[in-house]
Amino acid sequence: MALFFVIVFVNSDIISNNTYFKIKPMKKLVLASFLLTIPLLAVCQNGEKFVNDLLSKMTLDEKIGQLNQYTSDGAATGKITVDAEKEKQIREGKVGSMLNVMGVDKTRALQEVAIQSRLHIPLLFGLDVIHGLRTTFPIPLAEAASWDMWLMEKSARIAATEASAYGIHWTFAPMVDIARDPRWGRVMEGAGEDTYFGCLAARARVKGFQGAGLGNTDAIMACAKHFAAYGAAVGGRDYNSVDMSLRQLNETYLPPFRAAVESGVATLMNSFNDINGIPATANSYILRDKLKKEWNFKGFVVSDWGSIGEMIPHGYAKDSYDAAKKAILAGSDMDMESRCYRDNLKQLVADGRVPVSFIDDAVKRILLKKYELGLFKDPFRFCNEQRQQQQTNNADNRKAAREIGEKSVVLLENKPVNGKPLLPLSKKNMTLALIGPFAKATVENHGFWSVAFPDDAQRIVSLYDGIALQLDKSSTLLYTKGCNVKDEDTSNFGAAVDLANKADVVILSLGEAPDMSGEAKSRSSIRLPGVQEDLLKRVCATGKPVILLISAGRPLVFNWAADNVPAILYTWWLGTEAGNSIADVLFGEYNPAGKLPMSFPRTEGQIPIYYNHYSTGRPAKNDDDKNYVSAYIDLQNSPRYAFGYGLSYTSFDIANLKLSSDKLKIKGDKLKVTVDVKNTGNYDGEEVVQLYVRDLVGSVVRPVRELKGFQKIFLKKGEMRNVEFTLSPDDLKFYNNDLQHINESGEYDLFVGNSSQAALKGHFELTE
Ligand code: NOJ
Prior knowledge:
Elements: H1 2-14, H2 17-20, H3 25-57, H4 60-66, E1 68-71, H5 86-91, E2 97-99, H6 104-114, E3 124-127, H7 140-144, H8 149-165, E4 170-171, H9 195-210, E5 223-227, H10 246-253, H11 255-262, E6 267-270, E7 274-275, E8 278-279, H12 284-294, E9 300-302, H13 311-314, H14 320-330, E10 335-336, H15 340-350, H16 356-372, H17 385-390, H18 395-408, E11 410-414, E12 416-417, E13 420-421, E14 431-435, H19 456-459, H20 463-470, E15 476-480, H21 493-501, E16 505-511, H22 532-540, E17 546-551, H23 559-564, E18 567-570, H24 578-586, E19 652-659, E20 663-665, E21 671-679, E22 685-695, E23 706-715, E24 720-727, E25 734-735, E26 741-742, E27 746-753, E28 760-767
Parallel strand pairs: 1-2, 1-10, 2-3, 3-4, 5-6, 6-9, 14-15, 14-16, 16-17, 17-18, 20-28
Antiparallel strand pairs: 7-8, 11-18, 12-13, 19-21, 21-24, 22-23, 22-27, 25-26, 27-28
Helix pairs in contact: 1-3, 3-16, 4-15, 4-16, 8-9, 8-18, 9-11, 14-15, 18-24, 20-24
The structure holds 1-deoxynojirimycin.
1-deoxynojirimycin binds next to loops.
């Protein structure tokens, strides 16, 4: 016991707030894993015993209560049932968790009620802390564009520190759904289209939220969601069905969940969709066979909002009795908001339809997490007014948000104007016209899935303010809105044109409204809404150089702009510090290095579009090849902007590809791949060097390219660095037709460069 406490103390000290970010990621990983092993074992053993003792004292009603989760009245992402008697039910031990209750006062008040229950079992408080709480970070898809796992971990760490100070024990994040369809509004919540990348992001985010481990007061439970394949909804329409081979499911959609489990994620959430006809909520293949058996997951699974009851309209359950039975037998442990468990489990046990051991297993999983969080020792340990105060306007957190914001921006175009790229802008002697519905926006910068506070409008930095703060006195900043985001009103176009005519450079800030991406926000057209593109055309017609900034939660289609506007920055929704981050990029205080985590289509007709598609028997040689090949007669196959693409103010040359051998043995071998990367431009900057492979022949058709490694490096102008990747046979495994994860010997092409269209090519053979 003494050893246990000493180690916990040392561990939480090393990874405390101030020192955490100074330790190098790799060293930190090794150190943390070593130090975590012993205390975790101790927690598990003590926890098991504690939970078993407690379980033996519980009535069936109390057990079922632990599986029941309610929302606070008011906040809803689905049908809301107002229960006048929630507090009474909590006091009677009929509620295990609440969602959407936030703040020390509110969580304390309800926790006080919970511990009046017969066995004094505390509540879990869960909330969608998707990209920050008090400090809002870029939306997860934007952050993914940083290709910086360390930063992604850092923003999750800060979000957890703030959330835990606001009484929260549990976030419903990260979303680790692979998303290949930008019509689906929820692409904004994840890490994009690639499975390899998605696994790394899942690990980073879980680690960030759970910090040095549950039990530390700044660590909250993460929740990998939505299990599974939610991003593959037919037609990109939210909640829609998913029909795919089990091979595809295992190869593309499940690995990020497994990565989250391997990183110790405490919980998973069901997805709303059915998979091949079986709703995920009652899908024992994914929940029992994969998650709980093959992956040995010891945490618990929460349903999505009402998803147990939704199996009735799905046509998979006859009534709530049937739905509860199917969900619990399949392995869904906690019922968010449907009340099916509350109303039916007792009867199901009495009728002999559900063995009580299934309920015991679910309850134990939940109680164990409460134990690990330390709630049985002190149910109020997350209710510390002083901590909440410290995290309310935390300058360090805002600084981090500004940095992560800069790194999320993707420079899509920077063509020369008068012989020189338009960006970066000078701060001096400039008349800038700032036009567009997002120019003075504040709360919109938080995007979808952010936590609202009454003072948001005052504390969120608008683009206008961010630019004004940095502009030299010798310069002038002019502003007009030009148009709204969605409507057809063009009455301000004249004023916008006049303003543009007075300026040296125009900055146009256009995009999607925050309620156009996110849950239940699928779009069939992913163009700039309203009259924004018309405004752009009118302003460009003045002949003034235009910089276009696009705020959005998903890849949009904007071909006219891509062809005609010299400079385009994709600025997503960057959060509390949005205006400062964008101004830093505009003025070259930060040289953009973001790379797209999703392919950007030319039109909606190309969707789903993703770089790692299979080859056909009639592949097109290029975009012009239409001769009885797999192509559109009216459209190119290539995306407008490729996965992994993004420019910099400087330029990089990637050359001299070398492989340590032209053979890689399947057993115990490694292949070293090196390239020379040189900064050949005029600015210091970062580049993401990306490695892709192509397995030329397989027992099942293999993707035309697959990301297998990347490194983000900083080079001073003129500097050159040798970058080394190591490939091992494990990196080349795939699921064969019998669902075995295997290596097959054969020939591979390899590509290194700065996007998924990298041309530098090598070749090797994987041998027995
Ligand atoms: C429904 C969403 O699908 C899920 O992601 C979210 O966590 C819950 N509602 C709770 O708000």
